[in-house]
Amino acid sequence: MKTKTLCAAAVTASLLCTGYSFAQSAHWGYEGEEGPAHWGSLNESFAMCAMGKLQSPVDISSAVSTTQSPLTFDYKAGGYEMINNGHALQVNYAPGSTLTVGDHQYELKQFHFHSPSENTINGKQFPLEAHFVHQDADGNYAVVAVMYDNGEPREGLASVWQTQLPKTYEKQSYENPIDANSLLPESLVSYQFTGSLTTPPCSENVQWIVLKEANYTNDEIIHAFGEVVHLPNNRPVQPLNNRTISQ
User: Fold this and answer.
1) Cα separation of 133 and 114, whole Å?
2) What pLDDT score was predicted for residue 12?
3) Distance from the Cα of residue 169 to its chain's centroid
């Protein structure tokens, strides 16, 4: 990896291009007066964080068995750089990798990590969660969430964490592009529901796909994450408000 230090404006531009991380004039974080309980009052554009009825993350404990739209992952090796945006470690992805839900296609823009997990399953919180963020041609989001439990990490996660991780507002380029396929579990059976972005501005009507099968991480990876990003960096679970979770 090659490391570069970015000014805040450069980080902002890069994150806006991915379409998920939003740079705003208001500072926000995960604790104290800038924490999740206060996001809705930090900036008028964050109001949905407090007022929304379709917020994420959620606890998945009441899924309904139903026929889901089939998922087709067509990922290429396109993860070309990792950015530390001050809230998470994010791997930006080159164009050309897609997720198709039924007949609706989204392009993979980036993936990033939260520790501990944001979504929970039957009340269980995992040490790590990855969010694969996709957008369609109209700017609508679909997020695939992968949980990581304690165990022996697969090679894919280790390749993301190779060498020195970028510090705040730094980025590192990968010599060999990361293949997002290597971060997915063998089974792609999922829970699906409508939710929101889990960071400000908490925009709603996001298609959430939480894979049932977990991958694995270890204490070394979590420790390395915590050395460059202040943890925890997870938003607490939000009320379902009569939403249906399908499986």
Assistant:
1) 13
2) 40
3) 18
Residue 238 falls inside a structural domain: no
Give catalytic residue positions. Answer: 87
**173 in any annotated domain:** yes
pLDDT tens digits along 124-164: 999 999 999 999 999 999 999 999 999 999 889 999 987 68
The number of beta carbons lying within 10 Å of the beta carbon of residue 72 is: 13
- Mean pLDDT to the nearest integer, 86-108: 98
Distances (CA, A) of 145 to 32, 42, 106, 133: 27, 27, 15, 9
Q: Give the torsion through C-alpha atoms of 97, 220, 200, 168, to 10 deg.
A: -90
CATH number at residue 109: 3.10.200.10
Helix (H, G, I), strand (E, B) or coil at 93: strand
Q: Provide the b/e sequence for 185-223 (b: ≥16 CB within 10 Å).
A: beeeebbbbebbbbbbbbbbebbbbbbeebbbbbeebbe
pLDDT cut 90: percent of the chain above it: 86
pTM value is 0.91
CA dihedral for 218, 223, 228, 230, sign (positive or negative)? positive
- 31's CB contacts (< 8 A; 6+ apart) are none
Structural domain boundaries enclosing 42: 2-228
Task: Determine the Cα–Cα distance for residues 191 and 72; give it in Å rounded to an integer.
Answer: 15
Burial 111-140 (b: 16+ CB within 10 A, else e): bbbbbbbbbbbeeebbbbbbbbbbbbeeee
DSSP track, 191-205: EEEEEE-SSTT--EE
DSSP state of 46: G
